[in-house]
Amino acid sequence: MKKEMIAMLLAGGQGSRLGVLTAEVAKPAVSFGGKYRIIDFPLSNCINSGVDTVGVLTQYQPLRLNTHIGIGIPWDLDRNYGGVTILSPYEQSQNSDWYTGTANAIYQNIRYIDSYNPEYVLILGGDHIYKMDYEVMLDFHKSNNADVTMAAMPVPLEEASRFGILITDETGRIVDFEEKPKNPRSNLASMGIYIFNWSVLREALLTNKEIPHLDFGMHVIPYCHQRGDRVFCYEYNGYWKDVGTLGSYWEANMELIDIVPVFNLYEDYWKIYTKSDTLPAQYISADAVTERCIIGDGAEIYGKLYNCVVGPGVVVEEGVEIHDSIIMEGCVIKKGSSLNKTILAGNSVVGENCKIGVGEYAESLYNKKVYCFDLVTVAEGSVIPDNVTIGKNVAISGVTTPEDYPDGKLVSGGYIIKGGEE
Predict the structure, then answer these.
(1) pLDDT exceeds cutoff 80 at 255
(2) Is the N or the C terminus of the chain less surrounded, counting Cβ atoms within 10 Å?
(3) CA 89 → CA 95, 98, 368, 400, distances in Å?
(4) Backbone phi, then psi, for 383, in 5-degree steps?
(5) Can you give the pTM of this predicted structure?
């Protein structure tokens, strides 16, 4: 039985620009929007688009991701034929290979794809927030008799030099590529979403298999283009967010609680599915304040929340005040503490009477490339003791004690990293 199109979802990335948030969890498994994980979006897009066979390629810290996906029940991907399959690197008779590049990961799973004998293969990343009907993209691919179709999104021309840029003719056929050009000739940025005719992709992978770190954007697509394959650009104009930095991750969460959200999680015709634990209803006490918040199941709120995304099972004790923050599942914020622009990863504890996210911004003393926003980022399972004051643009990981805070303070730009981060 042949499948017309199957999807290969690349979910092996560490997401190192998310710093301590991805120290022990792959980026696609990071919580988003209170109840979801980032990978829920491309998976939901697949089932909403009628793509019922998805290979998920995992590598870095895969345990949480594998547990979350399971056999694919929430996405209706628990199928006897097709469904979702976790594809991890494995030992072969000659050698044992990690996935070394996006296209190398697909090359190592040719046998999986061949088992479905598909006409088309859809390549997806596991770390973007968006809704997209891949069936519409496939129709575009067919109508142009294309060999390869790349999804692209118009971006402001002044930002185009941050992206891989596609240059097209009047028919939409791609005539040239520019990787992060200084003077871009187009504003169409590649989204890393591709549809290939399987015969074309298979041949390209086999021909280029010896290239180290074989990559779609760097090697496979230029190879197809030079060979004269019909490579087309599918222009997408909906919401799409690469949550690759702490700033964009925080922004995308905050956009969900706008009065009219740019990205609507509540549309009936395009549901976002996720694995949900069975939890009691949320409890919001009579004295609590919640303004413009998303609050997960099983949360207990006794304090004041303004512009917050709060995950399941969070406890916010009385006298607590939190502004513009993301509090992930199972966190406890104890009496009298205040948090501002804080990302608190799952199962962390903030002690009593702490002041977090105060004072002026300062450059990070830990990693200037990752920590360059006025956010406090706290890794999963961390503990912050009572009565400490923490500045802005700070990273904390591990069970910290009063001794870690000279004079009860962690200054802006500072960090406390205990245990194996990155």
Answers:
(1) yes
(2) N
(3) 11, 6, 32, 36
(4) -130, 130
(5) 0.89
